[in-house]
Amino acid sequence: MAKQFRTILVPVDFSVNTGTAIARALLMVPPDGATIHLLHVQRIGAGGYWRKITQFFRGLSWKQVRAAIKRSELKLLELKDAIEATTEHAKVEVAVCHGQSVEDTIIRKAIDLRADLLVLGKRSQHTTFPQLNTVVPSRIAQASGVPVLTAKPGALHSSLQKVVMPVSTRFPANKLALIAAIRRQRDLQVQLVIFADHDTDKPFPRQSLLAIFKILKGQAGGKVNYVVLHGRDKVKALLEYTRSIDADMVVVDPGAETKLTGWSNRHLSDMLPPHSKTMVLAVR
């Protein structure tokens, strides 16, 4: 069955991330419509013992917590009205949640909605202290099973024309389905990437690269090419290549194709600066 972006989840924090995520989500809405779910995770009022400690030191009462939630709901309703006033193809639903971590709440909501796509605006870039990342797109994609598109502010007004897709030891059925869904709306140039160090010694990449190439060539719109990359750190090589061709999007597995080699917990999306136009689509 052809992939369709019928249910799109957009976490909202009312910062520049929100505008970026909503803009990219709207571009993924098919011509015959979709539902965009705006989710805001209220940081105050976390549950359990920690909530009591936090409220004690911050002087927060439940009345203040409920008031903060109400303000967030009103902001979401304003966003809903603005979106529905500018497009006839998208219906908007809103929700405010609290009591768990931001990442856990996003994962739970994506699963509950059975979302087809999650669009995450992410300006921050914690590369020196990666443990400061409270929301890691690859973790969300792995835990929820929902494709996660991460966009930095630099992608706000950029076009989507050039896509990079690495080919590894597993047949990328989900990647191909998502690329097909995007290509139905626009012409894309797809750049397949295979790594020289280990994968070329295995039968799958050698035998399947041509098959994948033919599948993509058979889809409507755009061109398909492939390149062989070298380097022990595949994610680093992929990042450097993506930058070198000024790609608009890289489609990766949220496991081996996103985490850089080394002691730190650095991921591909966090290595891109806020002004980068390159989006990362993590697909399990």
From TrEMBL:
By sequence similarity, the record places it as follows: Belongs to the universal stress protein A family.
What is the protein named? Universal stress protein
Q: Which domain of life is it from?
A: Bacteria
Q: Gene3D superfamilies, from UniProt?
A: 3.40.50.12370
PANTHER family attached to this UniProt entry:
STRESS RESPONSE PROTEIN NHAX (PTHR46268), UNIVERSAL STRESS PROTEIN UP12 (PTHR46268:SF6)
Instruction: List residues of the UspA domain.
Output: 5-150
